[in-house]
Amino acid sequence: MVVIDWDRLRAEARSMSERAYAPYSNYRVGAAALVDDGRVVSGCNVENAAYGVVLCAECGLVSDLVAGGGGRLLAFSCVNGVGDAIMPCGRCRQLLWEHGGADLLMDTPRGVLTMEDVLPMAFGPENL
Ligand code: THU
């Protein structure tokens, strides 16, 4: 069984937020997640002069997951530049659903919730 160390995940997310490339919004985001094999994957937001093509921190995290061998996400933390827990945007909830499903645990401003809580009635692989 993989133990969830929330403090470690939050610290990793905070550390990632310091690497964000956010010169347009100045809103730094860091994300970190525990994988079912014990790995911790992470990402930060990466903005662009063409504002609409911004990569959210979760995009980097999912790339880190897949490039590192894949696996299922068990627990997820996302923070802003001052370390407060923030919610993934709608698109990123969908990205996370793909790799963690309904049971993925999310650190939120309202405490630990599941993906099912924050993205009810999601569209997923089983719908195809
Ligand atoms: N952002 C993320 O990285 N993840 C989210 O889930 C919400 C928004 C970033 C995108 C942009 O660089 C900045 O936060 C402001 O929207």
- Count of extended strands: 5
Q: CATH superfamily, called what?
A: Cytidine Deaminase, domain 2
Distinct compounds present? tetrahydrodeoxyuridine
Number of helices: 4
Describe the structure.
- This protein is an alpha+beta fold.
- It has a single domain (6-119), classed as Cytidine Deaminase, domain 2 (3-Layer(aba) Sandwich).
- 30% of the residues lie in helices and 22% in strands.
- The protein contains four helices and five strands; from the N terminus they run H-E-E-H-E-H-E-E-H.
- It has helices at 6-17, 57-67, 90-100, 115-118, and strands at residues 29-35, 40-44, 73-80, 105-108, 111-114.
- It has a five-stranded mixed sheet with strand order 2-1-3-4-5.
- The longest helix has 12 residues, at 6-17.
- The mean pLDDT is 98.
- Tetrahydrodeoxyuridine (THU) binds next to helix 2.
Give the topology:
Elements: H1 6-17, E1 29-35, E2 40-44, H2 57-67, E3 73-80, H3 90-100, E4 105-108, E5 111-114, H4 115-118
Parallel strand pairs: 3-4
Antiparallel strand pairs: 1-2, 1-3, 4-5
The chain binds tetrahydrodeoxyuridine.
In brief:
The protein is of the alpha+beta class.
Features:
128 residues; alpha+beta; Cytidine Deaminase, domain 2; five-stranded mixed β-sheet; 4 helices; 5 strands; binds tetrahydrodeoxyuridine
